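Input sequence (136 aa), recorded before submission:
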Amino acid sequence: MAVTPEEIGLCGCWQVIAVQREVVEVTKPDEPAARELGCYTSSLTVDQYDDQAILDAIRSHWSAVENGTHYRRDVSLGEDACRTTERQGAAVLASLRNLAIGIYELERAAKRTTVDTFKSWFQQQTFSTVWPILQR
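Predicted structure, token format:
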């Protein structure tokens, strides 16, 4: 069923895109694939990109998220294992994780670290080494 963005409360968007995915769990490769429906909004007009270009943009976005931010936040900082249930506490922890990632990126850009991965950099940091960076 076709709807306009305005009909679903998303004024300013030009497209609502639905993508059906088949998902196979890595730990259960013999089970049949599950189907998921992902919905996206875009400010692109229908004539700006064809379907393949939009799918490529979506894949590229998720590849960057999974291989960049999510990996750093979860694997290096254990975000998914965190059991904080208070909304404000979770927001503070997310801000601190973002701060740590930002400091690492600034240190890399300024060539003040030779460590090539966030996880390695984070593991070797202590409060005494991070505090002077925060005061710059």
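Checked by second reader. Helices lie at 51-76, 87-109, 118-124, 127-134.
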